Amino acid sequence: MIDNGTPRHPTVFPLAKGRTWAMLAGALAFVAVGIALLLAHSTLKMTAAGAVTVPFFGLCAVLLARRLLDDRPELVLDDTGVEHVRLGRFGWDEIAAVRIREQRVRTTSQRFIELVLHDPDAYLTRAPRLVRSTAAMNARLGFGPATLATNTLPTSPEAVLAAMLHHRPGLPVHH
User: Fold this and answer.
1) Is the pLDDT of residue 5 over 70?
2) Could you tell me where the DSSP H helices lie in the chain?
């Protein structure tokens, strides 16, 4: 949107580095536990758990370390749309609505901002490979392909939603 004939300044959300470092430490701790399970191989279950834990959390650690080395902002909102470091660029005209979602697993929960897209398939054809590979899993969990994790943002999902509405007044918000 334009205020008094001039474009609004973009809203930039940097990577929440402290949280990302903590997630990296957790991933590395799980890799260490997985290695210990593999070395102990006292039972088949422990060996299998280690064989699954090491590559999964190893990949998580690599992705988190790469993100920490990348200086790009996590999320940028402007008058033309949304740019997320992992998901890519969306024009406001591609976004039908936004909503804050929560995924609960036992005693913990993870909050997301979901961009409800007019044409998710069109996005998936241009989406990064990692997004395409996780789209089916997200669909089984009831999420669309354009879901922004908020644990790497330095602010609340509600603040991001307010900034989206600042740049795109009238953007439908589903609850």
Assistant:
1) no
2) 17-40, 44-69, 120-126, 129-140, 157-167
